[in-house]
Amino acid sequence: NAGVTQTPKFRVLKTGQSMTLLCAQDMNHEYMYWYRQDPGMGLRLIHYSVGEGTTAKGEVPDGYNVSRLKKQNFLLGLESAAPSQTSVYFCASRRLNEQFFGPGTRLTVL
Amino acid sequence: GENVEQHPSTLSVQEGDSAVIKCTYSDSASNYFPWYKQELGKRPQLIIDIRSNVGEKKDQRIAVTLNKTAKHFSLHITETQPEDSAVYFCAAIGPPNAGGTSYGKLTFGQGTILTVHP
Predict the structure, then answer these.
(1) Are A110 and A43 contacting, i.e. CB atoms less than 8 angstroms apart?
(2) Which of A110, A109, A99 is nearest to A45 (CA)?
(3) Which residues of B8-46 are buried (b: 16+ CB within 10 A; e: fewer)?
(4) Is A42 helix (H, G, I), strand (E, B) or coil?
(5) Picking from A31-35, B4-8, B100-104, which range would have the lowest pLDDT averaged per residue?
(6) How many beta carbons lie within 10 A of that of residue B100, not counting itself?
(7) Contact A101 B104 (CB under 8 A)
(8) Over chain B, what is the mean pLDDT?
(9) Is A49 exposed, middle or buried (0-12, 13-18, 19+ CB in 10 A)?
(10) Interior CA angle at B38 toward B32 and B42, to 5°?
């Protein structure tokens, strides 16, 4: 089992560029989540999904879109990147109450 | 929504001492409280959790206590070792929505940087 994987690991964007972060899990979990982690602020929920074909907004959804076309994949999109979106992004999937995190994507927006 | 406050933001102890990290939460309907450890450059990993129907839980050198009345919970690490150095996050699963489920949405505290000096 690979668990939860994320691609890419690192990315540098210029303001206004777009990109998609991919999260994949092989544990057949229904629930998946996208968080961002900023210094001194813990992890904040961006969007989440309770199953294939469903998505919902979290605490800080503005500037992001998501899709869950397949159960094992959860995509996070930035349509027009801004410097305020410089962060480390973690994906997670959930079994019962426990969330399993991916290794993270470090994104810098110049 | 739920709000979780965590203190202290940094904690420095000598090897062998105990370390205590405290969190408070705002919504009395929250019912699950995990603690995550995150080493530098790594992903958060669950180290212990507690449900609202339990007051204390212990796993070797780590324990968590929950006071539902006061709405606070604490992580206790005894006999600290240098490999315990990391950032620790508390979290709470927020209250259910109008449909009766919280969808497992975690609200995290701000984190505590624990440094254990040899």
Answers:
(1) no
(2) A99
(3) eeebebeeeeebbbbbbbebeebbbbbbbbbeeeebbee
(4) coil
(5) B100-104
(6) 6
(7) no
(8) 92
(9) buried
(10) 130
Tokens of B89: 């996050």
| Contact across the interface for B43 and A58, Cβ inside 8 Å | no
Cis peptide before B95 (omega within 30 of 0): no
Q: Kindly state whether A82 is in contact with chain B, defined as any CB-CB distance less than 8 angstroms.
A: no
A67 DSSP assignment:
E
- Chain B's closest residue to A35, CA to CA, is B106
What pLDDT is stored for residue A97 in this prediction?
Answer: 82
In the predicted model, what is the mean pLDDT of residues A36-55? 92
Q: d(Cα B73, Cα B22) in Å, to the nearest integer?
A: 6
Cross-chain residue pair B44–A90, CB shorter than 8 Å: yes
Residue A41 has pLDDT above 90, yes or no: no
Nearest to A68 by CA among A81, A80, A56: A56
DSSP-derived secondary structure for B38-99: E-TTS--EEEEEEETT-SEEEETTEEEEEETTTTEEEEEE-S--GGG-EEEEEEEE----TT
Task: Give residue B105's pLDDT.
Answer: 86
The arithmetic mean of pLDDT across residues A59-68, rounded, is 96
Mutate to test the interface with A, among B43, B64, B93 (most CBs of A within 10 A): B43
